[in-house]
Design a protein that fits this description.
This protein has helices at residues 51-58, 94-100, 111-119, 179-184, 203-217, 226-234, 239-263, 273-278, 280-283, 286-293, 299-304, 315-325; strands spanning 15-20, 24-30, 38-39, 43-44, 69-74, 83-84, 91-92, 105-110, 127-129, 141-146, 150-158, 161-166, 269-271, 307-310, 338-340. By secondary structure, the protein is of the alpha/beta class. The strands form three sheets. Strands 1, 2, 3, 4, 5, 8 and 15 form a seven-stranded mixed sheet that branches. Strands 9-14-13-10-11-12 form a six-stranded mixed sheet, with helices on both faces. Bound molecules: adenosine-5'-triphosphate. It holds the Pfam family Glucokinase.
């Protein structure tokens, strides 16, 4: 059996891989290191009381293949033998999974770690470049994903391996920069008195910006959901929605530029998460790159760093599949989050 580079033995095939978010869970089976993943229909987490029930009824009962191991990416910190999920009622108990579902080996990783694994493996068909120079293939990369929250991770190339670096980068401070920012800022809702990136760069953040613009303009806020705001912006039917998406793109560019500097991400900065793909036409506009490059004294360096929108519909699963097939290429720590029969 192969050894992964942290000295652990690679997980045995067939491997069940899963990306479990607050609303949706996506699963696929890998029969061996070469066969394409067998994907299952997306599961709504709210429709099953427990994850074991969802796995039994939606995966195991629907396939003749019994997986020997599982790699699951979860939204939330992984600590101890019972891992509650953020934004949904499921609790992941790997020991019970091994006892009840016929698995021998379970590895849990953070959802943005899976996104970081994905950006090591995406082909040109799974991403759209939106500015900057050529990528440096051996250099570090970073990924930001505005969705229900703002996930951030780095991907560092060291010791002949790609090492995902998950963190809480979505919660860094963000401050006003332009005259317009100074007008809007007093109306933005802070968290415990401070403005963090996540307060503006997620679904809730879109509404925060939109309400602040409406308050600044003394206009009634008529749109009631992030999708309504981005829809009205893309169809150019509402001036406040248009400005919301313009400022969202600027702020996403600024934070992406900060993360690029922290990781020296000359391999590129990637935008994932549910929102990036949905506002892709807006991200192609000038605001995102202008915010990204406005980083004196390092503007020159930032202008060279390419940025990409991840267009792969199941990027996290693609990342987990790449790791499952070639664990030696990645430095994924397993201490405290791997359970074996
Ligand atoms: N068209 C849209 N424009 C802007 N925001 C949207 C749009 N559609 C959904 N959203 C917002 O995106 C967020 C959900 O993001 P995303 O799809 O990335 O979910 P997630 O956090 O990855 O969870 P899960 O994995 O369970 O789907 C919600 O806040 C939702 O309101």
């Amino acid at each position: 059996m192969a050894k992964s580079n942290d000295g652990e033995i690679a997980l045995p095939f067939p491997i069940l891989i899963g990306d479990i978010g607050g609303t949706n869970a996506r699963f696929a089976l890998l029969l061996d290191a070469f066969a394409p993943p067998k994907e299952f229909p997306i599961i709504q987490t709210a429709q099953f009381k427990t994850i074991d029930d969802a796995l039994q009824r939606s995966i195991l009962d629907k396939s003749s293949v019994q997986p020997r191991s599982a790699i699951l990416a979860l939204a939330g910190p992984i600590q101890g033998d019972e891992v509650p999920l953020t934004n949904c009622d499921w609790v992941v108990r790997p020991r019970d999974m091994i006892a009840n579902l016929g698995l021998e080996d379970v590895l849990l990783v953070n959802d943005f770690e899976a996104q970081a694994l994905a950006i090591a493996a995406l082909s040109d068909g799974d991403r759209e470049k939106i500015g900057g120079g050529e990528e440096n293939f051996a250099a570090s990369r970073a990924v930001l994903g505005p969705g229900t929250g703002l996930g951030v991770a780095g991907l560092v190339h060291a010791m002949h391996a790609w090492i995902p670096v998950p963190g809480e980068g979505g919660h860094i401070d963000i401050g006003p920069r332009s005259e317009r920012d100074y007008q809007i800022w007093p109306f933005l809702e802070p968290i415990e008195g401070r403005m963090s990136a996540e307060q503006v760069l997620c679904g809730r953040g879109i509404m925060n910006i939109y309400h602040a613009i409406c308050a600044t303009e003394r206009r009634e806020a008529t749109l009631d959901a992030p999708a309504a705001v981005t829809g009205a912006a893309l169809s150019k039917s509402d001036p406040d929605a248009i400005e919301t998406v313009s400022l969202f793109s600027t702020y996403l560019g600024r934070v992406a530029g900060d993360i690029a500097m922290i990781f020296m991400a000359k391999g590129g900065v990637y935008l994932s998460g549910g929102i990036s793909q949905k506002i892709l036409p807006a991200l192609r506009g000038p605001e995102f790159r202008a915010g990204f490059e406005d980083k004196a004294p390092h503007g020159e360096m930032l202008r060279e760093i390419p940025t990409f929108v991840v267009t792969h519909p199941m990027a996290a699963l693609a990342g987990l599949a790449a790791f499952a097939r070639m664990p030696d290429r990645f430095g994924v720590a397993s201490e405290g989050r791997r359970w074996r029969k």
